[in-house]
Amino acid sequence: MRLIESTYISLDGMVTGDAFWGAQQGFQGDAHNEHAAGLLQAADALLLGRQTYDVFATSWPERSGELADLINPLPKYVASRTLTKATWNTEVLPGDGVEAVSELKKSREGTLLKYGTGSFSRALVEAGLLDELRLWVHPLVAGSGERLLPGLSPTRLALAEVTDVGNGVVILTYTPNN
What is d(CA 21, CA 129) in angstroms, rounded to the nearest whole number? Predict the structure, then answer.
């Protein structure tokens, strides 16, 4: 199973923060939405960390439209040491998330799409489990928030593709530099 992480990021490397999340929606257009829909159509399941799951599971089931119609029925996996029960068509991967994802990748075919970033993403990169990292770079300096993959050990990636989705947003697709 291939693992793709897709994450929004500001020019100054922020992936969280009110300034970023409040402004990034203004950059979305038709090409942006088409690319997002294409990623979901190609995915066989979603992988989420606990915090992303908590946000998504409370907001996406109530939404409608093309993206909601694609994301809501997909099988989902959430890595969590504390969550015991999940909703929204989700299976909890208990224990060590990296080990669980490694086993999942070995036991299934297809594409696993991961949203969200943080310590779980960092651990997946360090373990060599990420097959693609897609950074949706927004032309915005957020100024504050959490940076992408803080504390990551030096890791080389190869630029595989650049996609312009309009409004100044480009998607930089990186793969492991083996």
Answer: 27
Amino acid at residue number 58:
T
Residue with tokens 């990420």: 130
DSSP 8-state class, residue 27: G
Summarised one tens digit per residue, pLDDT across range 87-115 is 999 999 989 999 999 999 999 999 999 99
Burial class (CB in 10 A: 0-12, 13-18, 19+), 19: middle
CATH number of 2-176: 3.40.430.10
- pLDDT the model gives residue 18: 76
Domain boundaries, the chain: 2-176
What are the structure tokens assigned to 158, written together? 């190869």
Cβ-contact 128, 116 below 8 angstroms: no
